[in-house]
Amino acid sequence: MFITYIEHICGIFKIASYRIKHAVNTYVPQNITIKNKTLMIEDIICAIDIHRQAMKMTKHFMITFEITMSCITGCLVVCFSFNLFQFFQIASENNRTNVSESLSSLVFASVCIIYMFIANYIGQNIIDHNNHIFITAYNVQWYKTPLHIQRMILFLLQRRTKKFSLNLGGIFDASLEGFAMLIKASVSYFTVMHSTR
User: Fold this and answer.
1) How far, in Å, are 9, 53, 60 from residue 3 at the CA level?
2) Per-residue model confidence as pLDDT tens digits over 84-139
3) Are residues 85 and 194 in contact, defined by beta-carbon separation less than 8 angstroms?
4) Which of 62, 95, 159, 192 holds its CA 20 to 30 A away from the CA of 8?
């Protein structure tokens, strides 16, 4: 259900992007009549409304899962650090009989990395779909539309100046950059544990 909800949000962002592209590219090559202008305005308003709904769904998603995801992420960072520490501690003993223990700690550490990557990749996917709307709005021939439609599109483009991110617990953003930060923090915790043993 979690992944379905995410894909639904991404799909809504894609629909908004398509609506903007369709609204401008369909009516601009034709002569701008009152009917075409009205249809273009309706399509752009619909696209902006769809984008607003997708943003609202994303906010609802973050409110619903923020505490759970923050706790899981914290546990994964600690688990990865401890498993990495255990692996290097067993490996430094030079004992060939503990291969299964060292392998199990390495597998657990790998599972932690994979889980953190997937969770952050999902966040990056939502951010990319949101950014695609602004890229589409910028790339269409909005400058050939009537002035009041240009203003509507410019208001949409101005929303991009505010950074859109999926912030977990006010600590980090769920993105590939956030994943790199989690791995860096985990390795830092590991080095602290390794240096104090």
Assistant:
1) 10, 18, 15
2) 988 888 877 766 667 777 788 889 999 999 999 998 999 999 999 999 998 988 88
3) yes
4) 159
The dihedral formed by the CA atoms of 46, 51, 55 and 56, expressed in degrees to the nearest 10: 10
What pLDDT was estimated at residue 41?
85
Closest CA to 40 of 195, 150, 184, 190: 150
State how far the Cα of 40 lies from the Cα of 53, in Å rounded to an integer: 20
Mean predicted confidence (pLDDT) in 49-54: 92
What is the residue type of 191?
T
Query: Which contiguous run of DSSP H or E holds residue 172?
Result: strand 172-173
Which candidate, 68, 39, 51, 42, places its Cα nearest to that of 10? Answer: 51
Nearest of 164, 167, 162, 163 to residue 181 by alpha carbon: 167
In whole angstroms, how far apart are CA 128 and each of 17, 46, 104, 124, 152?
12, 21, 36, 6, 22
Closest CA to 40 of 21, 15, 17: 21
With 0.85 as the threshold, say if the pTM is over it.
no
